[in-house]
Amino acid sequence: MRRFAESEGGASAVEFAIVGPVFILMLLGTLAFGLYIGVSHSVAQLSADAARASIAGLDDAERASIARQYVERNASGFPLVDAGRITVEAGPAPTDSTAFRVVVSYDASSLPIWQLQNFLPLPEQTVKRVSVVRRGGE
Predict the structure, then answer these.
(1) Which residue, 34, 33, 45, is CA-closest to 129?
(2) Which DSSP symbol is given to 84?
(3) Average pLDDT over residues 41-50
(4) Contact 95, 62 (CB under 8 A)
(5) Residue 119 contacts by C-beta under 8 Å, 6 or more apart in sequence?
(6) 63-113 per-position pLDDT tens digit
């Protein structure tokens, strides 16, 4: 019995049983948040590019149309983003009459990060990015 009590043969297995789940949760959290950050960056890039493209419009209606068309045409070029979950709002900036604002929102509820909601504090399920540019042509 004494030989069994002094044996260290299973110490590594016991240590891994304690540390392993925490390590795996950290690894999954890193992957999930990396995916979310990638989606967030893609939405920000779409918003900024659509705002830049809208400068060519002669009035607010044409600028809004250009911004929406830009997002529709280019959303499929971002592999982390499902184009069907994107909404675009474009119009004059509410606080500055010389600016035009493009808001791109993405419903991120289909990302695997939400499977970790019982273990980690998570961001909002809608990724929303705003870009503002000066109006051109007026």
Answers:
(1) 45
(2) G
(3) 97
(4) no
(5) 25, 29
(6) 999 999 999 999 999 999 999 999 999 999 998 888 999 999 999 998 888
